[in-house]
Amino acid sequence: MKELEEERNRLARTSSQQQGQIDKYKKLADDSRSKAESLETQLSTTRKVLKRRKKELCCDLLINTASMTDSRNSVSRLAAISLCEERFHTFIIAATL
User: Fold this and answer.
1) pTM of the predicted model, to two decimals?
2) Closest to 81 (Cα-Cα) out of 68, 59, 64, 65
């Protein structure tokens, strides 16, 4: 009888330790899943910013090219440069948020 009681106690301790391990790894898995979701959100946002910036750069290139071909009209050149600078500052501010 005493041996059975000792065996039962030993099994209860083992079971408790194993449950502790299970809980520990469940928490680690949940934390990892949450971190992965956060990183995916950041990646998605970064991709959107990059895509928008590429479009802006193409637009800026066209504006600069067009304004530089008409060197007689310095006002349009200055306006194009100003627009490029404004878009660049807007991009920098958006990227830091």
Assistant:
1) 0.52
2) 64
